[in-house]
Amino acid sequence: MSEATPNQSLFEQIGGEAAVNAAVDIFYRKVLADHRINRFFDNVDMEQQAAKQKAFLTMAFGGPNNYTGADMRNAHARLVKMGLDDSHFDAVMEHLGGTLKELNVPDNLIEQVASIAESTRNDVLGR
Amino acid sequence: MALKKIILDEHETICHEGETVLEALLRDNVDIPFSCKQGACQSCMVRSLDVPPPAHAQKGLKDVLCKQNHFLACLCYPEQDMSITLGHQPEYFTEGTVIAKELLNPETVLLTIQCKDALDYYAGQFVNLKRADGLIRSYSISNSRRHAEKLSFHIRRLAGGKFSEWVHQELNVGDTISVSDPQGLCYYLPDKMEQSLLLIGTGSGLAPLAGIIHEALEHGHTGEIHLYHGSRDVDGLYWIDEMRELAEKYENFHYTPCVSRGDAPEGVAQGRANDVAMANIPDLKGWRVYLCGHPDMVNQAKRMAYLNGASLQDIYSDAFHVASPTLD
Ligand SMILES: Cc1cc2nc3c(=O)[nH]c(=O)nc-3n(C[C@H](O)[C@H](O)[C@H](O)COP(=O)(O)OP(=O)(O)OC[C@H]3O[C@@H](n4cnc5c(N)ncnc54)[C@H](O)[C@@H]3O)c2cc1C
Ligand code: HEM
Ligand code: FES
Predict the structure, then answer these.
(1) What is the ipTM of this complex?
(2) Which domain covers residue A54, as residue numbers?
(3) pTM above 0.90, yes or no
(4) Domain tally for chain A?
(5) What contacts 24+ positions apart, CB below 8 Å, involve A9-18?
(6) Per-residue pLDDT of chain A (127 residues; tens, 9 = 90+)
(7) Residue A69 domain-assigned?
(8) Could you tell me the domains of chain B?
């Protein structure tokens, strides 16, 4: 992790794209191994899915992305039909935090990431 | 949104929502080469003359081809109207002559082709073989790079399969056939010589793995190399003795033949090759993994290998996708 300076964005403080790449491997493995939620990730090509996880993490890390709330709704609408609810959302939040801890990201940054991800809850769950 | 226009030469094809460019062209009876419909064989490569193609349609293409707006028609769900060309396909074919043909087992033939020009390939890659009438199918190269002009293939006969039946029944020593440039990303590079390798193949999926193993051993790969070759029954296996001899000769090479149905004879494991492999090697952290053969096995094993600790960029695979018969 790079030295934090006041002008750095959250994304830069976490370590930018390199951090996303490191996190994706850990995060996606946690998600796929979790019986509470891995059914949502069946039937998708793994490489493609890993790319989407990268998009997810970049967004949660406050990095550059073009996603709108409507995009989040659309991306997860299929999953909501499959029964996606708060418990699944919580599980993903848990893995997000766990991944960052494993990468020794400081707690105050983890909190900021969690609050960005949390802010998408209603869109992801289609409410 | 929905409808997109695909302009090819003077002809206009409408691509519906949820339809690939290949599907739209075939529906319009456009004569375009294709084989796997899965983005694996690259035989459906076309080029956009105006807009950049969507990134998902360029999966696995070399950088230069991407920059020139080449893309795979079978992967492309167009995002806007496009003008495309089939001509000037970058795929380059050389002439090959069949110099040997022998059975490996009742359903698999070992075909050796002498190419006019030496091909530059990595062990594990595949080529597209083209019959005189234009029928194209992908086959993996089964030898290492030492014989860049002589390529061998393991071709499994599928009942009713157009190309494989023809190879088995009609193609003879002395006949010629076109051989494309080598392609694919499932190959061995002699870097990280100490990395352990796990190779799992079903049926003729042994072909690329054999090439990779010979290449690795010839380069003096020092990491452990574990091969699991599976089939339904013993008849579907081959090169058992050759692989055993190789395992005797090289201390770091280990070989486990597997059968998924019925009792396994002595020295053969019972179970599907990927299950047997993962049970024997539960921790794949730091390993490089090669998976070739039946698409279901490849997909399952990919997921298992990843969950067992292999990182995604260390998992190489070629699923032997067979074109869907319903669309032929
Ligand atoms: C990257 C890659 C590498 C490959 N490497 C190898 C290799 O090393 N060795 C190997 O043996 N194969 C390999 N393959 C598979 C190979 O390319 C061919 O798909 C395979 O040989 C079948 O081709 P075919 O023309 O014989 O069968 P096709 O004519 O394409 O038919 C495929 C199947 O559909 C059935 N079928 C066809 N038409 C109909 C119909 N109208 N109704 C019902 N059923 C029908 C056939 O019976 C057959 O089982 C590879 C594939 C890929 C994508
Ligand atoms: C925590 C908040 C979440 C955010 C910010 C988020 C973000 C994203 C993003 C950016 C994509 C890629 C969209 C695209 O480009 O196609 C995506 C896709 C996906 N997400 Fe989420 N996600 C969240 C929660 C979840 C949860 C809780 C699940 C399921 C348990 C989930 C499962 C998926 C799946 C399966 C896809 C792929 C969809 C597809 O390809 O059809 N996500 N997500
Ligand atoms: S890559 Fe498109 S048909 Fe094989």
Answers:
(1) 0.74
(2) 33-124
(3) no
(4) 1
(5) A9/A62, A10/A61, A10/A62, A10/A109, A10/A112, A10/A113, A10/A116, A11/A58, A11/A61, A11/A62, A11/A63, A11/A64, A13/A109, A14/A61, A14/A100, A14/A105, A14/A109, A14/A113, A16/A63, A17/A58, A17/A63
(6) 445 556 788 989 998 888 888 899 899 999 999 999 999 988 667 877 887 888 889 889 988 777 888 889 998 999 999 999 999 999 999 999 999 999 999 999 999 999 999 999 999 999 9
(7) yes
(8) 4-85 (3.10.20.30), 93-180 (2.40.30.10), 197-319 (3.40.50.80)
